[in-house]
Input
Amino acid sequence: QARQLQPDCIEMDVSWANAQYQQDKLSSVEQARYALLNQELGNQRRRANDVDSAIAYYRQAIDMQPDLAAAHYFLGQLLETKNDSSKDDIITCYRTAWQLRPNYREAEVALANVLYTQNKLSNVETIQYAVANYDLGHKYRQTYAVDSAIAYYRQAIRMKPDLSGAHYHLGLI
Output
C-alpha cells in the first residue's frame, strides 16, 4: 500500500522488491534492476553517513547480483569503519571487487592497505602500494575530493615515510 501511495519513492519500491526477492518472486531482469537500485541507495546512505543502512543496501545488492564490484568495494570501506568487523570480511570485500574488475585500482589499493596493517606485504609491495596510494591521492586531489586525497596521502606516508611527494601534496591540501 505504501508503494502505491508514494509511487515515486525509491526506498519503498526497493523495500517491496527486496521482500519479493526473498520470496523468489522477481524475474532475473527485475533482480538485476533492483540490485543496482540497492547499490545506489547504499551510495546515498554512505554519503549521508548512515553506515548501517548503507551496509544493508550493499549486502542486498550483492545478494541479488554478486558481480557488482562497486558494492563489494564500498561494503569493504564501510566495514572498515566499524570496529566490530573482521579483517577477513573486509579483505574478502576488497579482493572480490578487484577480482570482478581487475583494473579497479581503488579496490586493489584498499586490499593492500588492509594487508599492510596485518604485516602481510613484502618490503617491495609496501613501497609499490605506498606509491599507488600517492598516485590515488593525486588523482583525488585533482578532482577536489579532498578527504579522499588526504587519506591516500596519509596512507602513503605511513607505508613509506620518506615519500616526499606525499608530504608535499598533503601540505598543499
Observations:
- The radius of gyration is 19 Å.
- The chain has a mean pLDDT of 95.
- The chain is about 75% helix and 0% strand.
